[in-house]
Amino acid sequence: MSIPLSIAWTDGQLVILDQQKLPHVIDYLTLETIEDVYEAIFTLKVRGAPAIGIAAAYGLAVAAQRHDTETVEAFLEAVQTDAEYLGQSRPTAVNLVWALERLLKTVQKTETAEAGKALLIEEAERIHQEDEASCRQIGEYALSLLEGRGRVMTICNAGSIATAKYGTALAPFHLGSERGRKFEVYACETRPVFQGARLTVWELQQSGVDVTLITDSMAAHTIGAKDIQAIIVGADRIAANGDTANKIGTLNLAILADAYGIPFYVAAPASTFDLATRSGEEIPIEERKAEEITHIGHQPVAPLGTKVFNPAFDVTPAHLISAIITEKGIIQGDFQRNIPEVLNLYAGKGDKL
Ligand code: MRU
């Protein structure tokens, strides 16, 4: 039994687990160019907000190694252009822009292009390492909140493979498994891309957690029939007032948790907060291609040419969230006031590159 990982920095190369092919094919890809990284993020080969940020950070560092410029100014300009390009690979997860901005800020200090190249790699590695530590700490806090609540529902994959390690929403289950604490996890399949069925079920099985798959439409019935005691999900972007964007279907679960009177927890690192975004209304919601809905695999399931609306995320209003679990502490109550206090974060992040 082991916790799967999805990103490795090995001998100066960025290697990712191809999440498009899971669970039946375990394939690793070396991303050699910035275009490779963009494509891997856009097509969900690497996905999950923190993992997207880590991959983009390494992608920017990898691309920088090839810039052969005459002046440091020209080097910095090339890195800026690369960051703007990578920043457009997906719109909703703020970790992407957060990681790129962090690298841009670091590299500004450099006096030479060569030193700048090294700084970028070091900063990407730091982001990678910090995310693992953050997720572990989120797991510890989540374990304390889930005391006495062993039957838990989740959606999408906010797991180890969506982060550096452990995950956010799935971190308590991995840590619990290491310590002999038993959970029964109910994973919503997460149409249309099936991150729940393909990724969460596989990941939890790898680490020995008891997991049961349901379709998204079974959530309401299952909460009652199986006496679900809590719901825990990840996040792609959390606004200053606590409104939270996460995988489409998350809002359904938040409404159900409220109706059933069970806690609804969001688990996310500080890098997922965007205090420059005041509320959920300002969060950009990615819309993906129609074929994700009209087809399952290559099999059409709707009449050809069917009109489709395919938002990849929804926004859960803060008032439906019982607590936001971060590596810096558990945030409850007045989110507008308590988020900056717990995270020690102030507006300014998430601005355009
Ligand atoms: O479209 P995806 O698979 O990237 O969406 C992922 C999610 O919505 C996750 O819940 C979120 O990014 C948190 S991952 C720790």
From TrEMBL:
<dbReference type="InterPro" id="IPR005251">
    <property type="entry name" value="IF-M1Pi"/>
</dbReference>
<dbReference type="GO" id="GO:0046523">
    <property type="term" value="F:S-methyl-5-thioribose-1-phosphate isomerase activity"/>
</dbReference>
<feature type="binding site">
    <location>
        <position position="195"/>
    </location>
    <ligand>
        <name>substrate</name>
    </ligand>
</feature>
<dbReference type="Pfam" id="PF01008">
    <property type="entry name" value="IF-2B"/>
</dbReference>
<feature type="binding site">
    <location>
        <position position="90"/>
    </location>
    <ligand>
        <name>substrate</name>
    </ligand>
</feature>
<protein>
    <recommendedName>
        <fullName>Methylthioribose-1-phosphate isomerase</fullName>
        <ecNumber>5.3.1.23</ecNumber>
    </recommendedName>
</protein>
<dbReference type="InterPro" id="IPR042529">
    <property type="entry name" value="IF_2B-like_C"/>
</dbReference>
<feature type="binding site">
    <location>
        <begin position="47"/>
        <end position="49"/>
    </location>
    <ligand>
        <name>substrate</name>
    </ligand>
</feature>
<comment type="function">
    <text>Catalyzes the interconversion of methylthioribose-1-phosphate (MTR-1-P) into methylthioribulose-1-phosphate (MTRu-1-P).</text>
</comment>
<dbReference type="InterPro" id="IPR011559">
    <property type="entry name" value="Initiation_fac_2B_a/b/d"/>
</dbReference>
<dbReference type="InterPro" id="IPR027363">
    <property type="entry name" value="M1Pi_N"/>
</dbReference>
<feature type="active site" description="Proton donor">
    <location>
        <position position="236"/>
    </location>
</feature>
<keyword id="KW-0413">Isomerase</keyword>
<feature type="site" description="Transition state stabilizer">
    <location>
        <position position="156"/>
    </location>
</feature>
<dbReference type="InterPro" id="IPR037171">
    <property type="entry name" value="NagB/RpiA_transferase-like"/>
</dbReference>
<comment type="similarity">
    <text>Belongs to the EIF-2B alpha/beta/delta subunits family. MtnA subfamily.</text>
</comment>
<comment type="pathway">
    <text>Amino-acid biosynthesis; L-methionine biosynthesis via salvage pathway; L-methionine from S-methyl-5-thio-alpha-D-ribose 1-phosphate: step 1/6.</text>
</comment>
<dbReference type="InterPro" id="IPR000649">
    <property type="entry name" value="IF-2B-related"/>
</dbReference>
<feature type="binding site">
    <location>
        <begin position="246"/>
        <end position="247"/>
    </location>
    <ligand>
        <name>substrate</name>
    </ligand>
</feature>
<keyword id="KW-0486">Methionine biosynthesis</keyword>
<keyword id="KW-0028">Amino-acid biosynthesis</keyword>
